Amino acid sequence: MHQVKSFLLLAIDGEKMVVVNVGSCIGCRRCERSCPINGITFNEFPIKCMHCDRNPCLYACPENAIERINNKVVVIKDKCVGCGLCALACPFGAIRIDGVAIKCNGCYKRDVEICKEVCPTGAINNLEEILNNKIQNTVNKFNKLYYLYANAK
Predict the structure, then answer these.
(1) Is 126 annotated as a binding residue?
(2) Is 143 one of the annotated binding-site residues?
(3) Positive or negative, the Cα torsion across 107, 110, 113, 114?
(4) Of 34, 89, 107, 136, which is most buried with the most CB atoms under 10 A?
């Protein structure tokens, strides 16, 4: 396993922002292996559907084989003819064609995406969770400083 360069890959997902912290990714590929539909590809870091608000893949599909379900962009395989227009429209390169379109469905039937559960470093996460953790850490630091200051008198 290798450590890759550190940067954030961000994409807006309706109300939330999905974050892949590439600097935290250790290249273990658990996210890729755990995906039940093989919707994550790995090329130095995980590439997965960001379930864009504007979802260009949905509008590019002439067969209406892509739908938004539970705020996730999902391929309906029975409708897909494998034309590849969705893959061309995807700004993240997260769709591949293997007879039909294959992409992350955001584990739309689950509360938490499997890739997020299995990631040992938390490299795949929601920005909201990351910010809440940072805020809590900052509050804890200020509380410690206040305690030290108050007890120094």
Answers:
(1) no
(2) no
(3) negative
(4) 107
